[in-house]
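lol ok so funny story. i was supposed to be doing the assay writeup but got distracted and ended up predicting the structure for this chain instead. priorities right. anyway since i did it might as well share w the group, maybe its usefull for someone
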Amino acid sequence: MAKVIRSTYPKEFSIGLLILIFALSFFLSTQVFEVTWSQLMEGGTNVYFGMFLISTAVIIMVLILWEEFLFPIQIRPADNGFIFRNHRTKLKTQLLIYFLIPIIFVFVYLNYDVRTVRFTIWAIVCCLVPVVLKLLSGINNYNDFLKLTLVSIEYKNNKEAGVFDLQDVKHINLIRDQRKVLHKFEVVTSSGAVTVDLDEMELEAFLDSIDQYVSGNYKSLIKETRISG
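and the output, tada:
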């Protein structure tokens, strides 16, 4: 069974925050449409559904960026150890709901009178931000993983892959940043040294758990700890 290592905020707080974001985006979305405040106050306009759709697009963007709301960070047991990887179902779900965003904006553009410049800004932000900040990196690291067990270390990233039997490992060097957070570790064998870069593998969410496992179970193999610039 997968183990949740970092859950999201309390459910009530999370839902309340989403409602607040929806309300703010609903209010601000009036600038997208060719409508005056007097028309809105008097109910002499049909843009309310369009405003609802724009706000929905914003919420979808937030859910993609704030992925822990739908997908708490989990590690999965494997062969007397753990496997750390990006949640593949998460990425598929994110991609599926992402396509609702351009569909919404196309629908609004075709069915309402909009202020072109402001509409374009809203559309670009909602469509591009999730791609740049989440989806591209998720797709790029779709197959990456790190598997730590009591007998071996196995990993794969975009550039390379490897399996190390612990009995063949001479020592392990930990590489931390200025905050002393583990970001890489170096596995030294008779064949040479290989650096496992956790940042390249998009495993930032698991850094603490990986550190605990390596420091606890491979303690006899750890030779030194270095601080990277």
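Strands lie at 3-6, 73-77, 82-85, 145-148, 152-156, 161-165, 169-176, 182-189, 192-197, 222-227. Residues 3-140 form one domain.
back to the writeup now i swear
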